[in-house]
């Protein structure tokens, strides 16, 4: 059974590229454009991975991280951005991230991160 | 012909054989060039013989779309269509925000367009977006003009790519 990912980004093109890359790696993908929608999806469905842009219309990716952490089975959360350096994020936040990606995200970077988060045979 | 044959008759038999073999091979090759249709001669690996080779799309040499290189053609086409649609929409919104002096909207929209640009690998456009994101009220119009020019260049390359590879 394919793993399920939620991609959160208000930019449709970035969302589409990431979703296609994940589908190419046999993931099932859902997409949302903002943090409130993401929270609603997280309440309704179990995800194996959540990837969110930092800058969102109603807030930031950290709001999505909070929503993930409220889930009974929190999925690994990956923050993707093109605007801030991760060094500018508080350690309290970076310590809760499963991964960090910078735009443009290459297929190889994504594959490598997924291999680290989901080693072969981890189900 | 008779003169040629008499010339051969005075030569050793092994040399006569060679001349005859050469004559036969040359004749057969000449006939094959004349008789075969052009498509049969233009096989892969003979591209240098093409009279009007198609120029490679400029985008390929600049690294634009490199971020999409591993997507299948249909996915790539969907991304490029989305980019053209969304960027045109964002440009209109940017110009409206600039005209109305809404600096927050201007920064947000420029940031969003920067995300699209980076997703495609359009770094020059992404830099123009960043310049608008970080502009003061005074220099925003100038930077917006530069952004519009950069966007037009990328959209032109997207259209060239789409024309060159209709499924891409």
TrEMBL record, chain A:
The record ties this protein, via PROSITE patterns, to:
RESPONSE_REGULATORY
Establish whether keyword Magnesium is in the entry. no
Q: Which UniProt keywords apply?
A: Phosphoprotein
Q: Positions modified as 4-aspartylphosphate? A: 53
Instruction: Establish whether keyword Membrane is in the entry.
Output: no
**What Pfam families does the annotation carry?**
Response_reg
InterPro entries assigned? Bact_response_regulator (IPR050595), CheY-like_superfamily (IPR011006), Sig_transdc_resp-reg_receiver (IPR001789)
The GO biological-process annotations, alphabetized, read as: phosphorelay signal transduction system
The Response regulatory domain sits at 4-118
The record ties this protein, via PANTHER family, to:
RESPONSE REGULATORY DOMAIN-CONTAINING PROTEIN, STRESS RESPONSE REGULATOR PROTEIN 1
**What is this protein's record name?**
Response regulatory domain-containing protein
Organism expressing this protein natively: Actinophytocola xanthii
């Amino acid at each position: 059974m394919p793993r399920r990912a939620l991609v959160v980004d208000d930019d449709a093109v970035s969302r589409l590229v990431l979703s296609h890359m994940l589908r190419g790696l046999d993931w099932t993908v859902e997409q949302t454009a903002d943090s409130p929608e993401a929270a609603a999806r997280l309440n309704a469905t179990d995800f194996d991975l959540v990837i969110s842009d930092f800058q969102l219309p109603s807030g930031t990716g950290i709001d999505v991280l909070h929503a993930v952490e409220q889930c009974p089975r929190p999925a690994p959360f990956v923050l993707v951005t093109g605007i801030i350096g991760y060094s500018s994020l508080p350690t309290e936040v970076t310590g809760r991230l499963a991964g960090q990606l910078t735009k443009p995200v290459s297929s190889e970077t994504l594959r490598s991160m997924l291999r680290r988060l989901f080693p072969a045979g981890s189900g | 012909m008779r003169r040629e044959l008499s010339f051969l008759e005075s030569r050793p038999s092994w040399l006569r054989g060679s001349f005859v073999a050469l004559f036969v091979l040359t004749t057969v090759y000449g006939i094959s060039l004349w008789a075969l249709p052009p498509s049969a001669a233009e096989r892969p690996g003979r591209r240098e013989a093409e009279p009007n080779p198609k120029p490679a799309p400029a985008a390929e040499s600049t690294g634009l779309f490199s971020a999409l290189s591993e997507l299948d053609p249909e996915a790539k086409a969907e991304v490029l269509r989305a980019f053209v649609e969304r960027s045109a929409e964002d440009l209109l919104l940017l110009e409206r925000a600039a005209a109305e002096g809404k600096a927050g909207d201007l920064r947000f929209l420029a940031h969003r367009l920067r995300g699209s640009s980076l997703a495609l690998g359009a770094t020059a456009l992404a830099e123009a977006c960043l310049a608008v994101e970080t502009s003061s009220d005074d220099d925003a119009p100038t930077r917006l003009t530069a952004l519009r020019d950069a966007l037009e260049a990328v959209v032109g390359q997207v259209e060239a790519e789409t024309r060159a590879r209709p499924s891409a």
